[in-house]
Design a protein that fits this description.
Length: 296
Amino acid sequence: MYLIPRDNVVFSVLGEDIKEIYFTSAYKSGYPEVDRAKALLYEVENPRGAVVFVHGTGNRNFSHLQYYPRKLSENGYVTIMPVLPYHFERLPSGDTVSSAFLKGSSSAMEKKFYQAAIDVMTCVDYLEGRGFEKIHIMGYSFGGMISTIAMALDKRLDRGILIVTGGNFEFITWHSIATRVIRLKYEEDESCNPEKCHKIHRTFDETARNFGGVGELEKLPSCFRYDASLFANMINGEKVLMFTALFDPFIPRKSSDDLWHRLGKHKRYKLLSGHMTAHVFYRRYILKKSLAFLNT
């Protein structure tokens, strides 16, 4: 699952300004295009630390979110930005749908989250191989969910910054604009509905409170296994900074609150914005607060 061996991963580095790092994903999806992983590397002289920045789903906002790794590097942090599976050149051959990461059943989603988290931890391997001891993680939207899982599983990650993200897939599946493709799939094959989902999630709160690690995943429902809120109690919440958009149609407020509560209700900033307008209107604010958090 999440902790498959990554010892034999080989990195190829190309470019001069913003470098491109290529490696074969340790998790095999069955699609060669998906398994050829790529990350952008923002270098800096005399770095004070390193950051993994994880973007959200869909292709439209990738270039806008490059603002964060660029600015982090300008402020002394070498930053690596992996391209998530099922995005850009990591799409299966013939697939051009920008929502490819969210397509399919819960078991298919589970595998995509496995691969995404494993690729993020492989980027941590790369940074550690470069000699970095202080490595942090920053994630936007669904990238924040993946960041939460990676931070829970990889103790080399020191601090986490989670921007307009959340947990508890009961809220996300049935109340987010982003997951419409999931709801359509469930309607077509009648594999799930709000009532069935709610029944399954009756045990989620207790399960998340008592979750002890990946060894317990096999006995859990598939949709629990990639839920950021499940992994929250494995993280020191004092080392997490959250930003919540108050008018977010993609990450429901209940979802953001759920993750924040399970992380211990530590530092959080509330933004008077929607999902992407959080970046449009508050990117400098987010950066300023994030740098202050990392520098302490």
